[in-house]
């Protein structure tokens, strides 16, 4: 608790003020957890001050709460590029990340239990200047603070994924992707990676987790799921995409309606796969590794390939014209090529 209070005071998280008329302070409490090592032994005891965010009122002490979340597909693409191009991968963690977020709303909080203050200040409340764990807007405030710092250091956000930050200079690129308070840095500019690490250490209290390690799932034992499959005659659309020789994204989803033919079912799968491939194309363009070759889309249904290449009207496919025109437009623009396998 003492270490947490010192961290809060060092960060200037709040100031003691008289509670304004009409304002109701939110409560807070201490949360105690035990962190264990991989072998089961105790690593440390943790105490964290958490705000009772469920007592907040929308429009009074918070408004917007949205903050972007990293797409796992973006992480896979970065790992694929790092593997193919022999880029180093560094992982960092921000200590008490939410405490760095700057609040734009007026939020008042009761004095924390066990807080040592003078007798004159016992009736005062804490006016929060920085966010705390438990606040509804804490994640948004932290991400806004981090984005501001990254932009000040010359990085820009990718249009394909707002949690991906890029910096290109002297023909080299450095990328950082962040998930809440964990981040991965990679690229082909070692000097810039080192400079970024030093800059973030000054801006925030960081933990360098060094090179990424394996997840330890190689020895897992897959088992069958004991659930009976319901036969509702609906097809399952699926696709998987490669960047180079590496599988980076995949998805399967049962279609909402029953397809009247296998060609119709394939059209829906082709459209879903093409949407994913177009997004990957934009992401690789941001990273500066866009190929001049068209996207190669493979399909195992000859009828679907023939209809996509030729503007033929069919009674059995006229209700999927939107998908057909979408695919045909990309074929005509030479953005993709459709191949039968």
From TrEMBL:
Regions crossing the membrane: none
Annotated SUPFAM superfamilies: DNA/RNA polymerases (SSF56672)
Residues in Reverse transcriptase Ty1/copia-type domain copies: 11-213
The organism's place on the tree of life at top rank: Eukaryota
A matching Pfam family: RVT_2
Name this polypeptide is given: Retrovirus-related Pol polyprotein from transposon RE1
Naturally occurring in which organism (per UniProt): Vitis vinifera
Name of the encoding gene: RE1_2504
């Amino acid at each position: 608790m003492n270490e947490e209070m010192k961290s809060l005071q060092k960060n200037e998280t709040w100031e003691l003020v008289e509670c304004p008329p009409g304002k109701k302070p939110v409560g807070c409490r201490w949360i105690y957890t035990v962190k264990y090592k991989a072998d089961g032994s105790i690593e440390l005891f943790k105490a964290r001050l958490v705000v009772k965010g469920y007592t907040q009122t929308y429009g009074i002490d918070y408004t917007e709460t949205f903050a972007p979340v990293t797409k796992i597909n973006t992480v896979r693409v970065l790992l694929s590029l790092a593997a193919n191009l022999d880029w180093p991968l560094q992982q960092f963690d921000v200590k008490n990340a939410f405490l760095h977020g700057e609040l734009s709303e007026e939020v008042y909080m009761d004095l924390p239990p066990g807080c040592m203050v003078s007798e004159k200040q016992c009736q005062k409340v804490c006016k929060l200047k920085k966010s705390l764990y438990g606040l509804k807007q804490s994640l948004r405030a932290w991400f806004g603070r981090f984005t501001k710092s990254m932009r000040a250091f010359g990085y820009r956000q990718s249009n394909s994924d707002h949690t991906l930050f890029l910096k290109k200079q002297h023909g080299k690129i450095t990328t950082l992707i962040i998930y809440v308070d964990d981040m991965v840095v990679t690229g082909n500019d070692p000097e810039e990676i080192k400079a970024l690490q030093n800059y973030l250490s000054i801006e925030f209290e960081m933990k360098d987790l060094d090179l990424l390690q394996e997840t330890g799932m190689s020895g897992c034992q897959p088992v069958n799921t004991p659930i009976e499959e319901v036969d509702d005659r609906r097809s399952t659309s699926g696709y998987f995409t490669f960047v180079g020789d590496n599988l980076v994204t995949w998805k399967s989803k049962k279609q909402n309606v029953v397809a009247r033919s296998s060609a119709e079912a394939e059209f829906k799968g082709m459209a879903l796969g093409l949407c994913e491939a177009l997004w990957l194309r934009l992401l690789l363009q941001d990273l500066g590794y866009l190929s001049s070759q068209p996207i190669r889309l493979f399909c195992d249904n000859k009828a679907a390939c023939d209809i996509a290449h030729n503007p033929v009207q069919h009674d059995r496919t006229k209700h999927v014209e939107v998908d057909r025109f979408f695919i045909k437009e990309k074929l005509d623009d030479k953005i993709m090529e459709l191949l039968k396998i």
